[in-house]
Amino acid sequence: MICMQETIERYRRHTKDTQTNSKSIEQNMQHLKHEAATMMKKIEHLEVSKRRLLGEGLGTCTLEELQQIEEQLERSVSSIRARKAQVFKEQIEQLKEKEKVLAAENARLCEKCGIQPQQGSNEQREILPYEESSPSSDVETELFIGPPEGRTKRSRLQN
């Protein structure tokens, strides 16, 4: 009789656990369905918002909604410009560091070759545009034919 009662008791516990698990699973499923529906609404809202930010479907917007969209776009552009300025600043810093490394390398190579390095930084030196030779230039621009001692002027180099 004791074995029979133990068996019955185990059966009752098992069915009670199964019912509890079943209710728990059902509650979990309801929660997940509710969460999925909420997520679908959020996705739909984000898609509508995205279309409006891209300028689509603005015909149904009120004046207040249009002003909110404008403000949001202005904040976004401001944020993008700030990020762009930050990236440029970082790149400038990297290039300045690279310039220092290259200047040190240049000085080392000049010293190795016995050449005097140029004084002044690149910021102080100004790059001048190409200038044509002046008439008082030492460069010959005429074409001579023959050996150097007996050269005679035959023709001029033409552009």
Features:
single chain; 159 residues; mainly alpha; 6% strand; disordered C terminus
Task: Explain this structure.
With 159 residues, the chain is mainly α. The protein has two domains: 1-60; 62-113. Helices cover 65% and strands 6% of the residues. A two-stranded antiparallel ribbon has the order 1-2. Strand 1 and strand 2 (152-156) form a beta hairpin. The N and C termini lie far apart (124 Å).
Q: On the 0-100 scale, what is the average pLDDT?
A: 80
Note the run of SSEs as H and E: HHEE
- What is the approximate shape? elongated
Content of β-strand: 5-15%
- The helix tally amounts to 2
**Low-pLDDT residue spans:** 123-137, 153-159
Q: Output the radius of gyration.
A: 42 Å
Gap between N and C termini, in Å? Answer: 124 Å
Total domain modules: 2
What's the β-strand tally? 2
Specify the biggest β-sheet: 2 strands, antiparallel
The assigned structural class equals mainly alpha
Sequence of strands across the biggest β-sheet: 1-2
Helix content: 55-70%
Task: Summarize this structure briefly.
Helix content is 65%, strand content 6%. A two-stranded antiparallel sheet has the order 1-2.
What topology emerges from the helices and strands here?
Blueprint: H1 2-53, H2 63-113, E1 142-145, E2 152-156
Antiparallel strand pairs: 1-2
